[in-house]
Each structure stands twice: as structure tokens, then as C-alpha cells.
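Task: sequence in, structure out. Protein: HAD-IC family P-type ATPase.
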Amino acid sequence: MTQRSKIDTDGAGTAATGPPVVHSPAGLTSAEVAERVARGEVNDVPVRSSRSTTEIVRANVFTRFNAIIGVLWVIMLLVAPIQDSLFGFVIVANTGIGIIQELRAKKTLDGLAVIGEAKPTVRRDGVAAELSTSEIVLGDLIELGPGDKVVVDGEVAEADSLEIDESLLTGEADPVVKKPGDRMMSGSFVVAGGGAFTATKVGREAYAAQLAEEASRFTLVHSELRTGISTILKYVTWMMIPTAIGLVISQLVVKDDNFKDAVARTVGGIVPMIPEGLVLLTSVAFAIGVIRLGRKQCLVQELPAIEGLARVDVVCLDKTGTLTEGGMDVTELRPLNGGDETYVRKVLGALGESDPRPNASLQAIIDAYPDTVEWRCTESLPFSSARKYSGASFSEGDGENSTWLLGAPDVLLKAGDPTLPEIDHLNEQGLRVLLLARAAHDLDTPDVATDARPTALVVLEQRLRPDAADTLAYFADQNVATKVISGDNAVSVGAVAGKLDMPGAENTVDARHLPDDREAMAKVLDENAVFGRVTPQQKRDMVAALQSHGHTVAMTGDGVNDVLALKDADIGVSMGSGSEATRAVAQIVLLNNSFATLPSVVAEGRRVIGNITRVATLFLTKTVYSVLLAVLVVCSQVEYPFLPRHLTLLSTLTIGVPAFFLALAPNKERAKPHFVRRVMRYAIPGGIVAGAATFTTYLLARHHYTGEDALAAETSAATLTLFLVSLWVLAIIARPYTWWRLTLVAAMAGAFLLVLAVPWLQDFFALKLVGVTMPWTAVGVAAVGAALLELAWRWVDRRFPA
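Result:
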């Protein structure tokens, strides 16, 4: 545009009080930019990929259970020896570990977010340059091309067949054609054409600013794992309150002559009810997952995506950019109907010159046939995934005018055309074929492709990704179905998939023949693996159809035609070199553009979910037996058998240390749903057996021992039984055994034996086995308990399968 026109700036932050925003083909001058920066008219929305340091510390320190334990710790420091307060120091250490790991994850996320940040092209002083979104000021002229995201609100200044997708904001899937003066909303993106717009609202005033800030925040919510743990903790709290009150009253009644000892044993009964390390280990496992994936140049924009991808059973792949590399090479030019090859080369060169933002196919043509003629482009039609072709009209300089189309042969040619078998033969070799056709109608007519005269075939060879075959083999081995969903010719896509030994590559479907009914479409999708000529809307419908059959669907892609499907899939995965729009809606961005990184993400998710399920069973078994012991003590009106130091020792050896190693260990189990049910079906019988066995030993010991030190001997016998049963729980959960898991279980047993054997450790933990009869009785009761555990868990596996 050559004229300068004023636009309304009302509502653009402080812009209303400054000079009017103007459209200028050269953009703002350096002086104008400096003025706006000085006035604060900058796009100052903070790009946050993670929680702040303060939020991380607050989230780890100020928890419900830390508050309970903190109060109990202070009480124990006042009334008991330091060894009965060890549980407090363990909580301090655990909280510190959680904070450190989340800070490390924050550092990784922040670094990756900068790498993956969208950098719009801004024109200033007549020069276009890429800038960070935070450097944009009010009135900046921002250039747009296919796939570019609109980062601030504005008004169209220049438009060249500009089509904008506003579906992420309005839900309307059809692209909107924009003309100069039309409004642009941040959060939308370009699907075809190009242009430029002037920023009229920046910073927090922009339409999608709050949404973008919220969406990019480091979060642990909306996860079955986290939701399940919260549910469990809610029930634990309900159980704790009445049980703890009953325990407090009973111990004060039973030990009316020794208040301090009564308090110590009461606290000893309450503390183990709290699964305090469970939330910590979940956060640590997620945080370490982020760090591990970050090292592989994988940006996890929403943390639950690690978990989500592990639950995926169908991965939908876009061929271009995923199975093949972005670049292509022209291998052959075949003139049709007696066409002159020299003239065809001129046409292809002119078509390449007419598109300022060529896609990969057109770029290969530009490289092969550079523009050598002085033809004037009078009108152009940019490529779009819905049309499957692009076009341009030229004045050839000798009075001749011509209009040309370049695109999918099976779209531009009529059914039964004699050229189609030749094209099919090329497609079967995995080659990509474009048809150059001379149009009989003007570009702006809806039926421009009708009666177009075929002039030449352009044969392109796609470069296969060297790692694609191994990645497809990994998914097949893990029982994850792969579906190739591409806009290209179905036969060509199937040939590419076949070269990569993809299962089901021979089953190719032309999406133009897919049924519209969701149920019928889902059936076809389940039975086939390769789909060609898929429109962007069909990609979205296919994701919905798969989900309707109970599948958890991941969608990968890098182009604007993938955005709708990425948005609706359970997990969206974008390539780092993909369009800004795909990176904006995807939960996972592969910054190294390597499809081979996906197995690492799946493996990381499976490690997190599988290990947290194991670890949660350990923690909640302790909660169940602690509540049961407290109830039995209250009902029997006897002294609580344990001091806090005993349960600190047991928790450390049978839960704390093993859980840390188990939570971070390799784990390739496929993630399963119903987390709470799967954990509690083991924790409840395990806790009941452990609590009952321990209380049985305690009652037997009360009848066996007499005298002043009887309680200490009774406690030692009960502690031995509880340790052995808890160790067996650990041994079951550690299966299937590896050398390090067996070593872990053996090391915990050895540490407990060390405490029993070393005199000063005996005194420190108040543990001393007296006589021979009762210790062996304790071992015998524990053996029966272990046998009952095996029987109970096997029965649970049959009665309540996961």
C-alpha cells in the first residue's frame, strides 16, 4: 500500500493517549520505535514456560501434610529425644530435593522455550527482520506468510490472497479471507497467501494474551496421575482425623502416669498415616522427565503430556516432515500433449517467482528451474491444503496472457484421464507427482480447475528420514498402531510407508472415498493404516472417529493443515521447524525436528506412570497398616507399640530409599487407566495383612514379656514383624527382578540387621530383641503374613484385573 491511513487505537493500552497508529509500507522508523518503548507501548506479556521460583518453593513447602507434620515435629522436639524427631528432618530433606529438582526442570524448560519461541517478521525502516514477540511495539508492521501465527491484535495493511484460520478462537474451521482494513486477532494463523498487518493492541490488551500466558505455564494439573493421588490423599485425610483423635484420647488414658511417653507414642501412630513422600516423588519424577527430555531437545509445553503420550495407543503421522524430510528434489519433467519443454521450464520458473513464500514442493521447482523470463504476474492463487493446487496469471510481454495451475494431478484431472495410469505408476515408486495445467478460466472463478489442459508432469523425490523406520518398528513392538494421514496421493504415501517397512503400508485408502458417518469412518480407520488426499477438516474428523472407539490418539505434524487435528488429539506433537501455529497448539515440540525422539517421550511417560504406580502402592500400604494399627490399639485399650523413631527407620528402609530408586528406574510397561483402583487393590490387602501380623506379634509379646522393660521388648518384636512383612511388600512390588532390584531389597534387609547388631544403633533406635522365643515367633508370624500377601495379591489379580 502506498497511502497512509489512520486507524482507531481505542483500547490499545496506552496507545489512545499517544500519536495515532498509521499504516506505512516501510513500517516504523527507529525513532518511532524508541518513542513507543519509552511510553511502555510494548508487547510486554511475559512468556512463561514454568512456575516462578517463589511458586515452586511455596508449592513444595506449604502443603497440608507438611503443616501437620511440622506441628507434630515441634511437639516431639519439646517432649522426646532427638531420634523421635527424625521424621521431621526427613521431610525437610525431601522438600529440599523436590524444590531443587523442580528448579532444574524450570531452568531446562525456560531454556527450551527461548529456542522454540515464535519470532515474527517485523518491518522497520523498510527492512524486514525477525524479532522476539516481546520486542514488538504498538504500530509495528508485521509480515505474514503460510503457517505464521498472529501474535498481537491488529489491522490488515497488505493482503495477497490472505486467508486466516480463527478456529482456535472462534471454533469456526473455515478460513476467513482478509482484506486491507480488516481486524486481525492474536491466536489466529495464516493458512494461505500472505500480507502484513499493523499492531493495534499489544501486551495484555491483546485478545489472546491471557490465554497464551495461561497455556504456556508449567503445570501438573489435568493428569489422571495427579488427580488420582489427590483423590487418595482426600480419603486418607478423612481416615486420619477420627483415627488420630481416638489414638490421642486412648494413649492419654492408658499412659496417665507418663504424659511425654503418651504424646510420643501418639505421634508415632499419626505420622506414618501420612503418605508425605508420594506427592514429592510424583513431582520429582515429572521434573526429572522434563530434564531428560530437554537434553534430547524435546520441549514439553504441558507437563501431563509426558503422561498422556505414554497412554497413547494410536499415533497419527503426517508423511511430509515426519516420515520424510522437508526438502525434495525434482527428478524428471515430462511434457504432455506435445508440450515444449523449454516453454514449460519458463512457466515453472515464473510460477516459482510468483510465490514469495514457497512450500517444499515449489522450492524444489525453483531450485531446478530458476526464473529466466520477464513475465509480469497479474494475479496469484496461493497453495492451500483444501484446494491441493496453486496458480498464477501472467502477462508474457508479447501480448500473450496465460493462467497456470500447479498441484495434485488426481484433483486437476478428470476421472479416466489417460495420464492417470502413468501417474499411478510413478506414485507406486514412492515418487511425488505434480501436474502443470493451463487454466481455461480466470483465477478468481470458483471452477478455475475445470477444463484445465494438462501440460507437464513434475516428478519429485522425497528424502526419507533415516531414523523413521526404527521409530515405526518401535511403535509396532510396543503395540501402538501407526496411521499415516497425508494430503498427498494415497498410492505415493503407501509406497513411502512401504519403504520404511511400516505395518499395514499395503492398505492404502483415498480419503475422498471415506464415509462421513463417524462410526463408519472409525471402522475404516481401525482396518487400514495409510490414508492419502486427506483434507485438514478430515484430519480432525479422523482423530474424533478414533477417539470415539476408545483410542488415545497422538497426532504429529508441522504444517498449518495439521493444526486442527493437533488441537483435537489427546496429544499434539509438532516439529520445531514447523509453523508457528502448530507449535502453539502442540503439547510437545520436537526442537531437533526428529521423529525418532518420540519413543523417548513415550518411554519417559511409561517410566513415570509405571513407577509412580509401584511407589504409590508402597506409601499407601503404610497408610493402611498405620490406620489399622491405630484402630486396633484404640479398641484394645493398649499402649501404641511404636515410637516415631521405629517407624522412621521402617519407612526409610522399606519405602523412602527404595521408592526413590524405583521411581526413577527404567520402566517400559504400557500405561493403564484407573490409577486409584490399581493402587488401592494392592495397598488395602497389603496394609491389612501387615497391620494384622504386627498387632498379632505385639499381643503375643505382651503375654510373653513381663517386668519394667517389657514394653521395649514388645516393641522390638512387633517392629521385627512389621519390617519383614513390609520388606516382602517391597519384594513383590520390585518384580520383575533385575540385579539392581534384588540388590536394593537385600541392602534394605542388611541395613535393618545392622541396626539390630550394632549396640549404639540399638540404643539410638530403642530396638533390642530379648530372648529367643519371641524373636523367632515374630519371624514366624511375618512368614505367615508374607504367604497371605502372596495369596491375597494373586486373588486380587484374578478378581480385579487391571
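The longest strand covers residues 153-165.
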